Amino acid sequence: RVFTDIQQVLNNLTHPRFVFTENEGEADILYNFSHFKDYRKLSEERPEVILNQFPCENLLTVKDCLASVSRRAGGPDGPRWLPRTFNLQTELPQFISYFQQRDRRGEDNHWICKPWNLARSLDTHITNNLNNIIRHRESNPKVVCKYIESPVLFHREDVGTVKFDIRYVVLLRSIKPLKLYVYDVFWLRFSNRAFSLNDLDDYEKHFTVMNYAPGVTLKQVHCEEFIPLFEKQYPEYPWTMVQANIFKAFAELFQVASAKPAPLGICDYPSSRAIYAIDLMLKWDTSREGKRIMQPQILEVNFNPDCDRACKYHPTFFNDIFSTLFLDETDGCHVTRIV
């Protein structure tokens, strides 16, 4: 018995082993849109009830916490799969020092300022002006992330080589042991203008989120169509190799996020399950062996993501999600276990 306030679930979950109930008190599964708070009361009164979120998962889904947790991997500069990030409220002196060091070395100093608790590119700005970045502290709490100055681009015949980002849906089955799956379909978003490191206020050149901007063209390419196009443009980089590195980054992220007990890590609550969307880009980097590589860059982790496109093109999406998370059955489901 499933209690949910999410219309996409109500419309698309058709698996015969799940039935909906409007009575929250008789539900076996609580699949809520909003954040759940009282885990202690639930664990004492109804320990058998399963819900679609983990205590302390904000360590992943809030941008400043994501950066802080990720630094547990990869030394003082953090892991290679996360852009260098500073909290402008608590790490301003460290950021200014880092900015000035890069400036003295003649390194690229484009940065992107983001509110730590918003999505859809709202109140997000790109600049290479230190004073401008400092002024951003006066509005909402923000993080500043190194802007990816050398992204892997995708050639669109209509506009040229553009930025793109990739969204994967990951399923967290448990913390101890850590069981993490990824949905086998990924989603793509593209900029509408050819990329270059100028015109920093040109939204359609520097951003990829077009589905919420009025009057803006939305370019859609299905992943099965994208892979051969990508491999034709980059024949030395088979997608299986690129995706293996992406999954490796996901695994490391959840390993460090669950390595410490709550509240420093995601809480091991046995009745929790969760679905997240991870947005990432690829950038050109150099391996320790001096080889040119496509390095995944995790941009954000989203709680209760919009799954409209997933349901539209993959009718079994929520059946696969629920079977994996709540029945621990993956046969016939479009998921791959990565941890």
Automatic annotation (TrEMBL):
Organism annotation: Brachypteracias leptosomus
Signal peptide region:
none
Q: Which Pfam family would be a valid example here?
A: TTL
Query: Cellular component terms, GO, for this chain's entry?
Result: cytoplasm
**What InterPro entries is this protein classified in?**
TTL/TTLL_fam, TTLL12
Q: Which domain of life is it from?
A: Eukaryota
Q: What is this protein called?
A: TTL12 protein
